[in-house]
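We treat protein structure as text, and this decision shapes the records that our systems exchange. The remainder of this section carries one protein's record, kept here as part of the documentation:
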Amino acid sequence: MNGKLLAMAAALGSSLALAQQPDYSNVEIKTIPLAPHTYMMMGAGGNLGLSVGEDATFLIDDQFAPLTPKIRAAIAAVTDKPVKFVLNTHWHFDHTGGNENLGGSGAVIVAHENVRRRMSTEQFIEFMKMPVPASPHAALPVITFAEGLTFHLNGEEMRVMHVPRAHTDGDAIVHFVKSDVIHMGDVFFNGMYPFIDTSSGGTIDGMVHGCDMALAIAGDSTKVIPGHGPLGTKADLQAYRDMLATISQRVKKLLAEGRKPDEIAKAGVSAEFDAKYGKGFIEPGKFAEMVAVNILKR
């Protein structure tokens, strides 16, 4: 698998990535301290959030199954407690691939009810034309929520909030109140155009709304963990949100004028943003086309 396709497969958690068995042997798990008990972890796939302390080890997302030993080793470097809770921010396999391993070892998997629903059955990511098989029973969330819930662990409140129809229909963002950290899942791709999974109920308007939800509780010193990309700030999230809203408005205008998605792909609606966001796995024209298709199908 070439580098660009591997990056796309990793970001989307596709069955193609599984079928071609990408090599994770050189992946390193990087642990970034954010507060006394709170960390961000980076490897391959979605960025992880971690809370450790006397009560329990709480993990947000778990990347790909072959990385579970490396993730466990990285966690063991900061705590001797095994993972007790795993919170999935959405259903894509680069965020839930380690569920079976961790759930089988006793971790309690928690997610929005739509995450369990989608993981329980075969899915099809239309943008990539890729089927994704149903997950094993041990990988499924055992606790689900509709609107949100709060974990009280390690002297911290982790407030989990559902974001309706954003990246998917099962997204959650997590606010570590004491640590002043927000984990955005794939509602926030820092420094790149995001993937909006229309086939899983995602919408561009929901992405903007999710950013607004986080911005309403963020301060100037808040650390913002994106689903993909480097650690961000409130200013990064604001700029990203404004980019999404601007491109969405432009695409809606062109659609109202009768332009087709393939025409909008060539219309340069993202031109002033491309230097900053256009070097990820989704190219500028493809992002504009994705937004157009999303608006037509929402």
Q: What stands out?
A: Confidence is low (pLDDT under 50) at residues 1-9, 11-19. Residues 163 and 171 are 5 Å apart (CA to CA).
